[in-house]
Every structure is written in C-alpha cells, then in structure tokens.
Design goal:
two-stranded parallel ribbon, 5 strands, alpha+beta, 3 helices
C-alpha cells in the first residue's frame, strides 16, 4: 500500500513463479511494475523469467541497441578472453563488457570473432 510503482531489474534471472507473483502484486494493489532485463541468452533462447514476462505483461517497450555493423542488436553475444564468440555453455554467467557484446543476429551467426 502506498507504492506508485515497483522497479524490477535483471528479470531474466527471475523464476516463472516470481514473475507470476509480480503480476499478482500489480493486479491486487493496482500498482505499476516496471521490469528490465534481457529477453534471450547468448544462444538466442529465452530466459525463464523473460519468457514468462512476455507472456503476461500488459505492455513492453524495447530499448534498442546497435551492433557494430549498424543493425539492431538482438543478441547478447558471449565472448571469451580472445574475442571468440561462444555458442555453448551454462545459461548464466555473470559478466560485463568484457564478456558480452550486443550484436545483430546476422553478425552473431556468421562471425567467429569480434
């Protein structure tokens, strides 16, 4: 009670149950909930929390990021210390700009190195 909005960040790490709980809070308390996070992992598959959010959200806005080639980045490419694009591994691996690079699907699909 008394909240105008709730902000949830990194929702890709949320479980389906946690996303459902946010939906219940929004419905029960008539509060706006703003969620931020990645839609897909480095292999272009949905994260559990992101998938569920896309299923039940009233609306969503996409923050557009560009690939180095200028196209819209739709992949968060995982790279190793040599800049090689990784396409296999655990879904969750924390990292920043030294581990993930925004990339369009065309570049991700046809490149081995950034």
């Amino acid at each position: 009670e008394g909240y105008d909005a709730i902000i949830a960040d990194e929702v890709q790490f949320f479980s389906e149950k946690q996303i459902d709980q946010l939906r219940l809070i929004a419905d029960h308390y008539t509060v706006a909930i703003y969620c931020y996070g990645l839609r897909t992992d480095f292999t272009c598959h949905f994260f559990e929390g992101s998938r569920r959010l896309m299923e039940i959200a009233d609306t969503f806005d996409e923050i557009k990021v560009s690939c180095n080639c200028g196209n819209k980045a739709t992949v968060s490419a995982r790279i190793d210390s040599n800049g090689k694009i990784l396409r296999e591994g655990e879904q969750f691996q924390l990292g920043g700009n030294d581990t993930y690079v925004p990339m369009c699907h065309q570049c991700w699909h046809r490149k081995d190195y950034i």
